[in-house]
Amino acid sequence: MRVGGNILGLALALFLQSLPRSVSSEDVACQTSQQCDDMREELGYGKLFVGFYPAKGCFRKGERMYFGIGGTLAQKVKPNLPGVLERVWCTEMDAGGAEQAAQEQQAPTTCLTERQCDDRRQELGISVYRVGTNYPSKGCFKKGPVAYFGIGGSVSEMSTELP
User: pLDDT (tens digit, 0 to 9) for every residue of the chain, 163 residues total?
Assistant: First the structure.
């Protein structure tokens, strides 16, 4: 795959040329929520907000830092974000960080909204969908032939693996 390598090398060179001057060649986009959270702590920001935002990867808006779940690698490293959003850059990633980033790219994404849950159940061919506040489980889950979305709960509660 020499041709693919050459195309990838050319794409990388063009991307690096497009970076703003304030980004050093040793900086890379934070590719995992953990890397973003580490950088948030280093920069002295409060809580990291993680969710499904239009911008992907690690970014800030005013005095808050965010990590947009999902998206492609290109979306996570895009240097120029819309409006007042600013990309947050991490320092060079170690081997462990690269491995975690690869795992997050392959890991299934948790549905955190009713709409995401509804879209996913349709992808899976589940015809019955129920939404409510009285379910012991929060977030999107399936029991038998029915998909459910339990309203309320934290991201952690919605991401917990069910028995």
Answer: 223 334 444 444 444 444 443 444 456 888 888 889 999 999 999 999 988 888 999 999 999 999 988 888 888 888 889 999 999 988 764 434 545 544 444 445 677 888 888 888 887 788 999 999 888 888 888 888 999 998 887 777 777 777 6
pTM of the model: 0.46
- Among residues 49, 42, 44, 67, the alpha carbon closest in space to that of 57 is found at 67
